[in-house]
Amino acid sequence: MASKWILHCVQNDNLMQTLILKKPGELVLADTPAPPAPGTGEARVRVRCSGVCGTDLHAFAGNQPYFTYPRIPGHELGVEVMAVGAGVTNVRTGDHSAVEPYLSCGHCIACRRGRTNCCETLQVLGVHVDGGWRDEIVVPAAKLHGSKTLTFEQLALVETLGIGAHAVVRGAPERGESTLVVGAGPIGLAVAQFAVEAGARVTVLDVSETRRAFAARWLGVNALEARGLTPDGLRSALGGDLPTLVFDATGSPAAMRQAFLWPAQGGRIVFASLVQGEVAFDDPNFHRRELTVYATRNSTAVEFRRIIAMIESGRIDTAPWITHRAPLTDVPRIFADWMRPETGVIKAMIGL
Question: What percent of the chain has pLDDT over 90?
Fold first, then answer.
């Protein structure tokens, strides 16, 4: 579906340019009021760069869980701090930061146990509440993670990498463990990145030759064609045994159902995917192999800080990730193209 678009010019300092997803398939550029001064514990930030996530693509298509319309998308953000409210000590005006876009309550049982990523009343910028596809936004200052050396594009990548990092924490691969990542979009590639970092022997499965080539070249992993592959074919490709750890990052109900076929006896499945509706599996097959299934959602402040340090030290090379760029004003016109597989998008970045 082609996107509709409207372009207005900012007339004064009280208005800012904002991308609004009014309904599935309708992304418009409009003028909206500039944000207020930050309150206690808050910071007003200038959004310098925002990544386009699978969440944004699914929302545009109308099949993203938890998403409501109209909504200002944008949760992968590289920002500059413009002003801070009372009591803020972790950042100051002029700092460059990544935004941890998960707004947690701080007192539910999940938060009390450090599981802020799955807070009972969690709100995610750009999904449950309006996000960062606009010039400026006010956020809790505690959700800002700064760097003196990373570019705004690198800071905007931290959230995507954090999803993969947290998924790998959930799966807890052992060194040398045979690990399969199904789906080589940005989240699957991030999972593969951190599984390699953990010392796992990683194989990536995808239908896209471009993404398989990316995984093989930049992550150094084995990459297999997904079409027509059977468990016996996978066993053969891996030298006789099925993997003991499987990550699904496809966003496909059919692929998630198939994920139950890939693990070896006693294996584990981690669902980094999120889809509308139910995912069914064959119970005797599940029990016979005593499989363990994990969900993984978002990431944590610990992972944000870890990833920033890894990029700063050169342990993660972000250069290959960003394949497409566009200014905010061009996005309504080209957004639908970014959804087409033949466009070859790994990660698109919006410059503000």
Answer: 91
Q: Cβ distance 169 to 270 under 8 Å?
A: no
Residue 67: which of 47, 53, 46 has the closest Cα? 53
Backbone phi, then psi, for 312, in 5-degree steps?
Answer: -60, -35
Q: How far is CA 25 from the centre of its chain?
A: 21
What confidence score (pLDDT) does residue 13 get? Answer: 63
Concatenating the DSSP letter of every residue in 73-120 gives ---EEEEEEEEE-TT--S--TT-EEEE--EE--SSSHHHHTT-GGG-T
Cα–Cα distance measured from residue 184 to residue 186, given in angstroms and rounded to the nearest whole number: 6
Q: What is residue 116's predicted lDDT score, i.e. its pLDDT? A: 95
Burial class (CB in 10 A: 0-12, 13-18, 19+), 77: buried
CA distances from 263 to 19, 121, 192 (A): 42, 33, 17
Instruction: Give the CA radius of gyration of the chain.
Output: 20
* Mean pLDDT computed over every residue of the chain: 93
Tokens of 273: 């995917």
Q: Are 303 and 169 in contact, with CB atoms under 8 Å apart?
A: yes
At residue 51 the predicted structure's pLDDT band, cuts being 50, 70 and 90, is very high
Mean pLDDT of 248-261: 95
